[in-house]
Amino acid sequence: MLQQARDKLQEYLPLARPYLPHAVALLVFALLGWMNGYFQASRTVSNPDLAETWSVPNWAPTQLGPERAMFTNLDIWDGAKRPAAAKVVAAQLPWRFIGTVREGEEYAAVILINNTGKIRRFGVGDALPNGEKVISISHGALQLDVAGTPRELRLFKLENKPEKPEKK
User: Fold this and answer.
1) What are the DSSP calls for 9-36, one per residue?
2) Which residue from 19, 28, 38, 155 puts its CA 20 to 30 A from 52's CA?
3) How confident is the model at residue 87, as a pLDDT?
């Protein structure tokens, strides 16, 4: 058995000779590391009554914003893209419908002009600042002609009240 080990060593020793400087460097650094650990562990403690006074840091809560949607839609998670919800972009009108007023039997629309901040009344047939024409005005509702298509704006939703049964 010892003879087999000696034969193997004589066979492989010439092949390992180019790596001898690397092995010596590895041995030197291993010896230095062991000596450092030994001397650090055998040194006496300078202050044995030292109390640890560190505390856990108080981190700010995570703020998730638009980055969350961006990272969840990346195809790094499972390779399947999530269907993106179509964003409805409301056209920013140069005016806002804020109310109706009644003058006798006729209604007038109260419109806030956005760029000036002034409030104006518009009647049936008048043109709004962006060119839309007022078709009709009723209590809390405004009907417009927007490029040939009628459009209705309401201030509040009308509730369907149940009809009272007739008394006989």
Assistant:
1) HHHHHHHHGGGHHHHHHHHHHHHHHHHH
2) 38
3) 63
Cα(159)–Cα(6) distance, integer angstroms:
102
SS3 of 69-85: the string is HHHHCCCCCCCCCCCCC
Q: State the DSSP string of 73-129.
A: TSTTSSSPPPPPPPP------SEEEEEEEEETTEEEEEEEETTT--EEEE-TTPBPT
- What is the strand order of the sheet 149-154 is part of? 133-138, 141-146, 149-154
User: Over the stretch 21-39, which tens digit does the pLDDT of each residue have?
Assistant: 999 999 999 999 999 999 9
Q: How many whole angstroms separate alpha carbon 122 and alpha carbon 87?
A: 32
Q: Which residues contact 135 (CB under 8 A, 6 or more apart)?
A: 124, 143, 144, 145, 150
pTM of the model: 0.39
DSSP label of 137: E
pLDDT (0 to 100) of residue 52? 73
